[in-house]
Amino acid sequence: MTPTSGDADGRGVVGRDPTMTPRKTRIGSVLCALVGVLAVPAARAEPVTVTIDSGALTGTYAESVNVTRFLGIRFGEAPLRFAPPQPARPWGSPASSGNDTGSGNSTGIWNTTSAGGPYGAGRPYDASAYAPTCLQQFNGPADARNRSMQWFNTPPFTGPESEDCLFLNVFSPGPAPVASQGKAVMVWFYGGSFKIGSGALPAYDGTEFASRQDVVVVTFNYRLGIFGFPGAPQLDPEQRNLGFLDQRLALDWVQRNIASFGGDPRRVTIFGESAGAGSVDCLVTAPPTGPSTASDPAPAPPFAAAIMQSGQSSAGISNPRFTSRNSWQKLARAMGCAQTGPDGLACMRAVPATQLRDSAEQQALAFFPVHDGGAT
């Protein structure tokens, strides 16, 4: 089989066999009516610049559909493996110290050097193209994995995978978003059994939905599999649902910045399918709030409405927490990291990311959210 474009091992989010005929999926079918799967028609794309709390960024306006798209916006720093996410730093500020965990460095911190990225001191962030998606986990032997990749990614998306994946996309009606527009906002949570999915899949392109419904659409990435829901006994329970914390960070970003794209932070609807619906259910059941202040002693949740499509929290999150813990222990033994305590966690942080993913796939391991006793 010939690898498709993607990361170093020839793997994107879709399968390795480009000759396979993609099949329509339930995920794509459900979203077709809401988000649309049409790409922006060929037309002149005009640059549009807005300013958010991290700095200026430039997207593109497509006159043919009257929508401005801002793609691949960083909302979280390149994450420390198995640790909560941190908000994106201002463009051009000094990078965090550390090294790429994908290279096996034991620090487990990604080096996000601004000079080599899409932005830097004195120039806007380039939001004209999608950024990497989070690492995907397609379980089973090679043939089964390839079939699953084709089945659940229709139409194909061939972008790279990375641990550095906390990016979002904004689709705003009109050529020049302004805060006074106060449009309704729809934030999409993708499904995929907490193992697969991406805010950059073509099925989730918000262009047509923004154009037809006159709403601001946001899609985003959250960590998956062992990287999002590690189940490590060395971690406190509230640190085992990292994918949920990524989702919360994205919603915080929307509250702070969506007015710059013409959206109203008081009119945010969160919606998702399958595992995405389960995530939405968790947010509704245990809604997060910001810190209390003298002027706002009871801050509201970061959304006003919610839609759950073909999923609820009890479908995946009622699984015993032992499922994820047992999967962690099996994977740790396979990686030679069976030590208990901090040494075992440090050992797992030092393993290349693709090695963890590949072994989890081969063993068909499951990593699900766990009840942590607190707000999402």
TrEMBL record:
Keyword line: Hydrolase, Signal
Organism of this sequence: Claviceps africana
Carboxylesterase type B domain residues: 49-93, 125-373
Region (Disordered): 1-21, 84-111
Biased amino acid composition, Low complexity: 96-108
Top-level taxon of origin: Eukaryota
Annotated family: Belongs to the type-B carboxylesterase/lipase family.
Transmembrane region(s): none
EC number: 3.1.1.-
A molecular-function term among this protein's GO annotations: carboxylic ester hydrolase activity
Signal peptide (from-to): 1-45
Any Pfam family hit: COesterase
InterPro entries hit by this protein: AB_hydrolase_fold (IPR029058), AChE-related_enzymes (IPR050654), CarbesteraseB (IPR002018), Carboxylesterase_B_AS (IPR019826), Carboxylesterase_B_CS (IPR019819)
Protein name per Swiss-Prot or TrEMBL: Carboxylic ester hydrolase
Gene3D superfamilies (UniProt xref): alpha/beta hydrolase
